[in-house]
């Protein structure tokens, strides 16, 4: 029996996982078949049902008890109508939309050892880490601007729900970058220690230019982060913060950048990290900030962290993935070992991500037409839905979410060798609504409360003549109007105003001491 190459093995492993998710295989059967693939390279697989062609009136057919987000074969009008109905179900529910069974091969690969309970949230956390393997490529957005794959994930769940498996996925995805960062950090420390041993008049070693460190520690200060970004010369970095409180370390004294400002800059297309200091040894930089991150926290921790930024933009830029509390008495979820077999499943996709520039133009730009079309379709569906609810809060939160959905689709496209998978569309639709539902579930009441307290001033004062209701009025009428507007209601002030109106021919004086409007009549 001939051995298959690693890409074909990865494809077969993904098919096994799809069979398991659709109920065709039990966990134990799937694991046995996967082991057989890795050992022999060839296995027969059962035929999988095509959910898009399954007649809903056949009780013997496999019908999932969730929205499959598969709108293939529909006209635009049918698709939008169906999407609106699906959104009505999603956002009226107290449970997040269940994960679609149509999962791209790359997502299946990095979720292979993840318990089902954590798959929805972990599927969102893996993409920001994977994106930095593409380097500094960018993608043409539907608005014709080019965006780098700046992504984040905020995993929110009750204390003790279990969010500990993410590090294993990150370690496998970013193993080479972690090794590079560790080696270069040791070189940097050696140079610092050498220079510290020298006297003031001694010639000290200069820091080399190739100390690239693309893994950021959550307890890094702003000056250290700024220096790290300068050393990386525009290459993206990744940070995992196991507690959101770790981000408070970015506040560096009275003049330091707030962690909330940092999160806003990290998500902006042209975000920068700037620091100007007068000290000879102080760090002065003005460089692009390309920092993808994954942060874990509880609902209480998330509320406390963002309490001063509900409407300022940092929260709006977060991709929230909610993990609900498990039922009382539920068995502990078990992970499979993250061993060499897991790495083999993942490696072909990591290699594709590293080759992103091979598919880009000479400026590092990639155009994924399918991702553009999907984003535009999602935007039309959201516009149709919000016209039925007139929910301004929901509408505001979709804007960044649509950009993130577009970038996630681009990451999956590159991970698949710059080939579009039909499953990407269904997965991205589900991903968009899952993250938006999660954000509203955790922060929705806080955002609506803040918006209800927000008051706007009029850009200018009203036309005072229009505030006088009668076309023929007295000096006392004009004085009363000024008093009601909080203005100086003295006789002199009122007469000065009337004189201006007479000179402009807006009113005229009558013989009985009253005034008649010539303009702005009621």
Shape summary:
globular
How do the SSEs run, as a string of H and E?
Answer: HHHHHEEEHHEHEHEEEHEHEHHHHEHHEE
What is the total domain count?
A: 3
Gap between N and C termini: 94 Å
Number of strands: 13
Task: Report what the structure shows.
It is a single chain. This protein has helices at 6-21, 27-40, 76-90, 105-110, 119-131, 166-173, 175-197, 222-232, 259-267, 299-306, 340-354, 369-389, 392-415, 422-453, 464-467, 475-484, 491-503; strands spanning 138-140, 146-148, 152-156, 215-216, 237-241, 272-275, 285-288, 291-297, 320-322, 365-366, 472-473, 507-509, 515-517. 46% of the residues lie in helices and 9% in strands. The protein is globular. By secondary structure, the chain is of the alpha/beta class. It has three domains: 1-52, no CATH class; 79-192 and 207-455, Rossmann fold (3-Layer(aba) Sandwich), CATH 3.40.50; 464-517. Helix 3 crosses helix 12, helix 5 (119-131) packs parallel to helix 6 (166-173) and helix 12 (369-389) runs antiparallel to helix 13 (392-415). Strand 4 (215-216), helix 8 and strand 5 form a beta-alpha-beta unit. Residues 42-65 have low confidence and may be disordered. The protein contains 17 helices and 13 strands. The strands form four sheets. It has a five-stranded parallel sheet with strand order 4-5-8-3-9, sandwiched between helices. Strands 2-1-10 form a three-stranded mixed sheet, with no helix packed on it. A three-stranded antiparallel sheet has the order 11-13-12. The N and C termini lie far apart (94 Å).
């Amino acid at each position: 029996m001939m051995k298959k190459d690693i890409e074909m093995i990865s494809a077969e492993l993904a098919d096994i996982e799809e069979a398991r998710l659709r109920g065709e295989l039990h966990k134990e059967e799937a694991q046995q078949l996967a082991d057989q693939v890795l050992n022999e390279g060839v296995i027969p697989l059962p035929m999988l049902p095509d959910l898009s062609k399954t007649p809903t009136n056949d009780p013997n057919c496999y019908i999932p008890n969730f929205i499959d987000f598969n709108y293939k074969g529909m006209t635009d009008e049918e698709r939008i109508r169906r999407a609106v109905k699906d959104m009505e179900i999603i956002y009226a529910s107290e449970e997040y939309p269940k994960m679609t069974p149509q999962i791209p091969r790359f997502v299946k690969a990095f979720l292979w050892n993840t318990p089902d309970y954590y798959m929805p949230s972990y599927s969102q956390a893996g993409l920001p880490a994977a994106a930095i393997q593409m380097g500094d490529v960018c993608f043409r957005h539907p608005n014709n601007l080019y965006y780098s794959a700046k992504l984040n994930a905020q995993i929110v769940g009750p204390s003790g729900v279990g969010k500990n498996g993410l590090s294993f996925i990150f370690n496998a995805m970013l193993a080479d970058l972690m090794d590079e960062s560790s080696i270069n950090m040791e070189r940097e420390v050696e140079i610092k220690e050498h220079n510290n041993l020298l006297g003031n008049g001694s010639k000290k070693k200069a820091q080399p230019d190739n100390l690239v460190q693309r893994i950021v520690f959550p307890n890094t200060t702003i000056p250290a982060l700024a220096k790290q970004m300068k050393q990386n010369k525009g290459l993206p970095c990744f940070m995992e913060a196991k507690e959101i409180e770790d981000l408070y370390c970015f506040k560096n004294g009275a003049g330091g950048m707030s962690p909330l400002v940092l999160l806003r800059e990290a998500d902006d297309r042209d975000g920068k990290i700037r620091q100007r200091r007068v000290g000879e040894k102080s760090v002065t930089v003005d460089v692009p900030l390309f920092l993808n991150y994954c942060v874990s926290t509880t609902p209480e921790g998330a509320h406390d962290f963002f309490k001063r930024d509900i409407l300022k933009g940092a929260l709006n830029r977060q991709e929230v993935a909610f993990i609900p509390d498990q039922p009382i008495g539920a068995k502990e979820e078990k992970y499979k070992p993250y061993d060499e077999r897991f790495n083999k499943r993942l490696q072909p996709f990591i290699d594709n991500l590293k080759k992103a520039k091979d598919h880009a133009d000479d400026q590092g730009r990639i155009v994924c037409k399918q991702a553009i079309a999907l984003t535009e379709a999602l935007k039309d569906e959201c516009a149709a839905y919000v016209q039925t609810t007139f929910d301004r809060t929901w509408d505001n939160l979709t804007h960044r979410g649509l950009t993130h959905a577009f970038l996630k689709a681009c990451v999956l496209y590159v991970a698949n060798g710059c080939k579009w998978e039909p499953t990407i569309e269904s997965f991205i639709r589900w991903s968009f609504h899952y993250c938006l539902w999660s954000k509203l579930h955790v922060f929705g009441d806080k955002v609506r409360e803040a918006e209800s307290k927000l008051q706007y001033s009029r850009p200018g004062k009203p036309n005072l003549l229009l505030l006088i209701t009668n076309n023929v009025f007295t000096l006392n009428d004009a004085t009363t109007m000024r008093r009601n507007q909080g203005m100086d209601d003295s006789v002199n002030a009122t007469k000065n105003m009337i004189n201006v109106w007479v000179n402009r021919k807006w009113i005229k004086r009558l013989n009985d001491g009253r005034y008649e409007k010539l303009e702005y009549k009621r």
